[in-house]
Design goal:
The chain has helices at 10-24, 44-61, 90-93, 116-127; strands spanning 6-9, 30-34, 39-42, 67-74, 77-85, 102-104, 111-113, 131-137, 140-148. It has a five-stranded mixed beta sheet, with helices on one face. It contains four helices and nine strands, in the order E-H-E-E-H-E-E-H-E-E-H-E-E. It has one domain (7-148): 2-Layer Sandwich (Heat Shock Protein 90).
Length: 153
Amino acid sequence: MTLKKSNANLSKELLEELQILRAAFPQQEISLDVIQTIEGTFDVSRLREAFANLLSNAAEHGTGGVVKAKVKKSEDAAVIQVCNEGKIADEKLEGIFDPLKRGQGFETGHRTNLGLGLFICKQIALAHGGDIVVKSDDGIVLFTLTIPLHQAD
């Protein structure tokens, strides 16, 4: 994946992306907690895409309640978290970032495509020198995307 990195205010960019997602999901409450301004060298377009994928998945496949997102700085990295009510079966967690996975989704029981959007998120994270992980515990699904603030080319 080729990145077009520039210095950017990631907090501002994600707030803008959130407004677009709220328009796409008017019935879903989506919150974003910006802990502090996060500036660094990123491919903003790609990170907005990853953020949109995570929020869209949470809005579409959660079992109710608020989709909550948080962006914060941790040492020399930006940390983006998205959580919602729901459950991903343990056997689905292992390959959730693999492309084109399809199967039973959250406790709602409807069929979901759990692959391409999350695969893209993983590729964006790796291209930035970061990572993405998921946890599903006690009725909460939490995705955590960690991206270095600055990465040597």
